[in-house]
């Protein structure tokens, strides 16, 4: 009996933790996440983001960043993400000012059998160091448990720690405080091994923060958010040495078109493709300090330049045809014929729907993996006050029709099933279009 209860609790917990997301962009939809540092450990991608929460009486400052802890998320395919829960909390770190709610952008790295989690926050002792300092918590596994060091790293004041370990084994810590700084780390990864230097020769005007350093071929890339105009955009500079001087090369991602003031990122290769992890305020369009992590593919030009990344909703990875396909994370939408809206504006964590406005709009969604085992039906969560007909094709507007779905009229959401007229094994682009002039809204589609 006890065993059964325990197993139910564990299953429930796994469900809770495991259900963090199966989304495109943003990749985490059950909470706000920002400042993502992504790392590959043992063939799996781990994302260590900040965790934005809403201010409440006695909980942080209204209108500002409110962050009390860190979660870690992991994925084997960049599509299905597991939330491993809280790894570090402000009130369990001995040196942190209680209730400062300033657990800002972190990083995590692996060395000699241990995982080192670096995080900036406000110390209790503000006499010896004003503003932010940076601490470390150490674990045997990427998901913790992480044990915080008793004191922050000596000689470091600032935010946004980033650790880079060079091929010769030398580790470097980078951080920001107006400028971007760097120093060598000792073998123990807990202390500086050299005096901090200001990294040159970066732009002198406009805030720079959030350094992320990586090496490709013989080039060190220093990437960073910079306010060149009104809000942050992602830029990069390169050098032949990890502590510079760096030469400014260009923009990785333009300013947010919708005005999210911050952006913060990391870049990593995974299974022969480079990815940019960054954030945007998708789940909080009216308040840009409640952000959400996104991923898009990143490409290098033959001369090593980074091609500018255009943010997408579709994001990366394949979507299993048997899972709920969120068409609102589309690859392309018919201009004027379809749009995206929140399912419930009072609870944006419910996600979005695609709204076909009655002028026979369409939506295209790339990378749906049908596999090889024949699928026979499609289920669509849909609503159409006057009824509607929706057509699903693969591989383009004139590709084969997979199904035609007749949506009965009604004001409620309903799950409507229809048989597939054909099955196409492999990976395809879906094209879903409204075939009537009546408005119709779709939450998701899935195949069985
Ligand atoms: O998330 C709080 C701060 O906003 C980060 O530390 C900065 O990089 C910016 O994203």
TrEMBL record:
- Keywords, comma-separated and alphabetical: Carbohydrate metabolism, Glycosidase, Hydrolase, Polysaccharide degradation, Signal, Xylan degradation
Q: From what superkingdom does this record's organism come?
A: Bacteria
Keyword Signal attributed: yes
Chain ranges of the CBM6 domain: 323-448
Q: Which GO terms describe its biological process?
A: xylan catabolic process
Q: For this UniProt entry, which residues form the secretion signal?
A: 1-23
GO MF entry, a single one: carbohydrate binding
Task: Establish whether keyword Signal is in the entry.
Answer: yes
InterPro entries, per database record: CBM6 (IPR005084), Cellulose-bd_IV (IPR006584), Galactose-bd-like_sf (IPR008979), Glyco_hydro_43 (IPR006710), Glyco_hydro_beta-prop_sf (IPR023296), Glycosyl_Hydrlase_43_Enz (IPR052176)
Pinpoint the site Important for catalytic activity, responsible for pKa modulation of the active site Glu and correct orientation of both the proton donor and substrate: 160
Instruction: Give the UniProt family note.
Output: Belongs to the glycosyl hydrolase 43 family.
Q: What is this protein's record name? A: CBM6 domain-containing protein
Source organism per entry reads Hymenobacter luteus
